[in-house]
Design brief:
The protein is of the alpha/beta class. It has two domains: about 120 residues, HUPs (Rossmann fold); about 140 residues, Rossmann fold. The chain is built from nine helices and eleven strands. Strands 1, 2, 3, 4, 5, 6, 7, 8, 9, 10 and 11 form an eleven-stranded mixed β-sheet that branches. Helix 3 runs parallel beside helix 4, helix 6 packs across helix 7 and helix 8 packs parallel to helix 9. The longest helix is centred in the N-terminal third of the chain and has 18 residues.
């Protein structure tokens, strides 16, 4: 059985934009689409699912879709469904069962606790409609970016577009360098940027040898570097390490900022 691409819906326009994006994504990957709504009134739930199905069918008529109304709270329902999903797709904000999506605790809880990639659909129509022909991935020194690079290369492959791999250096915003003992996204540079990028890309590129890859080293902190690169991207991909001894992921300050401010859809990919 093929695992689905799951999208959270609540009837808000951002969630319907997420459905449109997710339907196109499911078509690219040959996946079924599953619409998940956290329980409200029965009549309202039926209307939410009906509108979401109409959006999905308009965006990708050939994609097989299913739907579900969960009695759990939104975060728990989505995280639970993510245990057997290709990815979870969310709107950048919402109302009702998904109130404050990615501007409050619900969306951040999903991004921090899901076992699969979480994609937040942000940005203008040109960013959401794959008009730039570019996927951007953030690459840090060490092992924290492996799953993100693999995910980003697969996205570039199915979209038949280029991948821009970005490694950022310099002090974090505020001017003070983080101590080496503090885990975080691209906070320190231990090796030459070219070596970091080459090492991160070497094995994944064997699976997708025909994908065009541009390597980009930027002498600025991770947040502004990735926001700048994402300004002309269809998708921004970043990795997140798992917390040692605790459930969930270490999103870090940079990933938090990208979830709130990315100019294009952003995917947070757990490191396996």
């Amino acid at each position: 059985m093929t695992i689905p691409l799951v999208v959270g819906v609540d009837g808000s326009e951002p969630s319907l934009e997420a459905v449109t994006w997710a339907a196109a994504e499911a078509a690219r990957h040959g996946l079924p689409l599953h619409l998940l709504h956290a329980a409200t009134g029965e009549q309202e739930a039926s209307a939410v699912i009906r509108d979401a199905r109409a959006r999905a069918e308009a965006a990708a008529p050939t994609v097989r879709s299913s739907s579900e109304v969960s009695q759990s709270d939104a975060a728990s329902a989505l995280v639970g469904k993510g245990r057997n999903a290709f990815a979870l797709v969310l709107g950048y904000r919402g109302h009702g069962g998904l109130a404050g999506m990615l501007l409050g605790s619900v969306g951040l809880a999903v991004a921090a606790h899901a076992d699969c990639p979480v994609i937040v659909v942000r940005g203008t129509p040109e960013h959401r409609d794959a008009r730039f022909g570019t996927v951007v991935v953030g690459v840090e020194d060490g092992e924290g970016s492996g799953s993100a690079v693999e995910f980003a290369l697969r996205e570039a492959h199915v979209r038949r577009c280029r991948l821009v791999a970005v490694h950022a250096g310099g002090a974090p915003s505020g001017g003070r360098a983080a101590p080496r003992s503090t885990p975080g996204f691209m906070e320190t540079r231990r090796r030459p940027p070219a070596q970091v990028l080459d090492d991160a890309l070497r094995l994944p590129l064997r699976r997708y040898p025909d994908t065009t890859v541009n390597r980009l080293s930027m002498e600025k902190p991770g947040r502004p570097a990735l926001l700048e690169a994402a300004s002309t991207a269809d998708l921004l991909v970043v990795g997140a390490r798992r917390r040692l001894g605790h459930p969930g992921l270490q999103l870090g300050l940079v990933n938090h900022a990208l979830l709130h401010h990315s100019p294009c859809p952003v995917a947070v990919v757990p490191q396996l």
